[in-house]
Predict the 3D structure of the following.
Amino acid sequence: MALEARKTELVLFLDGTNQFSIPIYQRPYSWKEQECMQLWEDIEKVAQNDNITSHFIGSIVYIDDGLCPVTGVPKRMVIDGQQRLTTISLLLAALGEIFEENGNKNTKTKINNKYLFNNDEQGEERYKLLLQQHDYDTFKNIINGTEIPKDHSYNIANNFKFFQEQFRKKNVDFNLIYKGISKLAIVDISLDNNHDNPQVIFESLNSTGKDLSQADLIRNYVLMNLDRENQERLYMNFWLPMEKSFGDSISTHFDRFMRDYLTMKTGKIPNKREVYSAFKIYYASSSGTKDDIISDVHRFSKFFTKLAFEQEENTQLSRIIRDINMLEVNVAYPFLLEVLDDHNKKLITLHDLLEIFLMVESYVVRRAICEVPTKSLNKTFANLADKIDKENAYLESIQAAFNLKTSYQRFPNDSEFYTEFLTKNVYDLKIKKYLFDKLENHDRKERVNVDEYTFEHIMPQNENLSEEWQKELGSEWKHIRDKYLHTIGNLTLTGYNSELSDKTFLEKRDMDGGFTNSPISLNTSLKKLEHWNESEIINRANSIIELAKDIWKFPELSQNVLERYKNPEDDKDDVLDDDDDDAPKWHAIVKSASNDVRKNLDELILKIKEKFDCEVEAKRSYLFFYVRRPFERKSCFAILTCGKNTANVCFRIDPASFNEDEYINRVNGWFFTRGTERRIKIKSEHIPNICRHLEHSYDATNSLLQTIKIGSK
């Protein structure tokens, strides 16, 4: 016998001697009150309309062993339909209870005997529906009318309570509700294990992916076609402990873990909606058994929970993990999972493990300060483990891999880090609390809780600075304020923000709660100062940035060492990855930028178009300017980049003839060949200089094209 499908009334489906069991690999009962309310409203609607003879609520698919024992109960394993079957059973149990409360105990007995119990059977065979895992005892106690366990299934108990409350409302006709239940129809699909493939049918029924998570589908895939004994063994030994370790976060974190696991194993990042498909491909290509793979997933889940839930026992490592999570750098997890596993295998020492985690943290922080776009981070970490020399130089090979990164994958060096940090708008950074926490508590045994303090601008934010402050800053006070207001040199922590307000520097220094008697180490250098001006802001910034370079270290290696790790592929320009469908578009990025940034961009773009005979192309998150068609990198002379609070122009130079100025940053080959690229922040006061430098870029690009043309003859 092969697959049989027939439409039937639900009450007839439940009637008779049968037992439907939910396999151990199925997810727990998950319907919420919202789904129950929809079912209740549907039942009321069909009950009140005599023209509606049936209401279809879906299919119930089960494996029928084909046996019809004289003694005992036919066992049917439910493949699809657990949610509907369980919810209707809870509804019928609540209906029976309400009949009993209203003096009609016989009707309750009939409901129980027809739909909830196999009345002639004993023990477990007495129940028509057997749930699994956490739902089992709660459901059984409810239909038996006994007290539910303290550690009960919330959805089972809550939905039963919901139906009780619906029945107890005024003007509810119990007989009418039962009439509506009797009109519910299903497609009864019976499978034969010898002829039908339950997995294939299960996938087709869940092809939309709306009902089950990717992790649910994976669990069913690895356990479904096993015999019950092996299902229970693998589930109890590996899968259940793994799910328990995720606790209440399983719905949000387990899919992410499986995605990170597959990224680590394959070096490819599955689409969030295609993790299940990626797992099947991985499983099919693996030489391991199901035991091997489930055991491996279970092992790595322990490392994931250490990362995601900060459950690491080692204090030092736990603190670094906390900091990495504050930076929201989840894309590093696939790499970190492998490193944790290698440490567990004793391939690296604890010291080296800590150094690697700190390196990841520093990499992310320096890139944030230097405004390196994050779009390539997931692929960087997905493939970083391929660079590890696990036999000879584990730590050094990772240091070299980071050191040799170029373009948008680069690890900003000390020079770039200093230049960017000096004038960086730190106040509007998402990670500012993290930055000040690290700076304030570096090498402190008695840690300061930064959450108890607020951020203070030493030079006030007020646009209309007092005469005292104008005199303190000098004739260029507006320029100094605009340039340094939100920078690291002018920011500190205080518990007296409102008291300090716009007071003069000396008042802020000497008042109660001022800098002189502050417990904050970042305020120590302020205690002895007599003035607060551009020079002192820069001096303090220099001191803090020196500390920052020590906290977020660059992985320095000698040139001789780096030569051993160099690979031509390391210089490959991967700035624009057209396979990244999630990359933000230029116009969307500009739209989300601040008013000042948009205004400056509009002004510069207009001047470029007026000044140069050029072509313009918005591509992904950048705006490209070309001296001519076709649109190729060699004909590009400038690129605009944009963030929320800042924008930059990157341009080509001829090093032999280019004149540097103080606003220019040297860039280690983002868009153009290493050594031939410069970058300037787009500010209103910079635009005349930018246009002058772009003249050089425009001419240099044309000269390059002419050289290429001559060389090709």
Notes: Residues 687-711 form the longest helix (25 residues).
